[in-house]
Amino acid sequence: MPAQFQDYWDKNIDRWGDKYLDISHGHEAFDRPAWFTSIYNSTIGRIERRLMKERYRRTIAFLDKNIEPGVVFSDLGCGTGIFVVEAAKRGAIVNAIDFSESSLATTRRNVEANAPNADVSYIHADLQDDKPLPESYVALAMGVTPYLTDIDKFIAKAIRSAAILCIQYTDPNHWANRIRRTMPVLDVRSLQYYSSDEVDASYDKHDGFLCWRDKFATGYIDVVTNSKKFHFEKVDYPR
After folding, report:
1. HEC secondary structure over the chain
2. Which CATH superfamily is domain 3-226 in?
3. Can you give the residue ranges of the Methyltransferase domain (predicted)?
4. pLDDT per residue rounded down to tens, the chain (239 residues)
């Protein structure tokens, strides 16, 4: 995992939870001058806050439809643990997985405060190395792929570990991302972009079956199944 992403998440993980609560994230720390950060958060940041609320709604809908008591659920890149808590409240056995120790510590605090009797394992792992992930029935990767530099390794690892996957990507061909890529000063988080063609080729290579794809924000959300473990065309989708 590149050092700049590790540093960003270690600095900002507690602040990211605020986005889901519709609190201004003007206190997010960018590697930019203070005046730029202020302007960004009062303009683009407002749009991002609305999109974070919608992403939260869709993810909760996905959990509602696919999590039952006793189901093993993995949050790949658990961040603040907001979806770890939600899955635990629905009775899941949860794997909270992240490359940032700060993220895991924040997740643990949130679980202890909001789901104290939950069955949660905290796993420090790089989603792009060759070490296997724990097996689960449902896995979630929201806001993770923009910080991964080798999408094929991630997809291979994720598909091997889970029956159903919900994954968000940032599309290089979206007009807003074209602007970001031509004006790097606007790409405040140094995002990674993956086209649907590149992702589809990786699914085919690693026995992934694409059930649904829907445009979201400046990218898209996929629901994918492991075709060797679980293959059918109708999996409930977070609309």
Report:
1. CCHHHHHHHHHHHHHHHHHHCCCCCCCCCCCCCHHHHHHHHHCHHHHHHHHHHHHHHHHHHHHHHHCCCCCEEEEECCCCCHHHHHHHHCCCEEEEEECCHHHHHHHHHHHHHHCCCCEEEEEECCCCCCCCCCCEEEEEECCCHHHCCCHHHHHHHHHHHEEEEEEEEECCCCHHHHHHHHCHHHCCCCCCCCCHHHHHHHHHHCCEEEEEEEEECCEEEEEEEECCCCCCCCCCCCC
2. Vaccinia Virus protein VP39 (3.40.50.150)
3. 75-160
4. 555 444 543 444 444 444 444 333 334 555 566 765 665 566 666 666 776 888 999 999 999 999 999 999 999 999 999 999 999 999 999 999 999 999 999 999 999 999 999 999 999 999 999 999 999 999 999 989 999 999 999 999 999 999 999 999 999 999 988 988 887 776 656 789 999 999 999 999 999 999 999 999 889 999 999 887 665 545 555 55
- Tell me the CA distances in angstroms from 166 to 12, 14, 140, one per residue in order: 24, 24, 5
Identify whether the C-beta of residue 51 lies closer than 8 Å to the C-beta of residue 217. yes
The CA-based angle 25-15-145, given to 5 degrees, is: 95
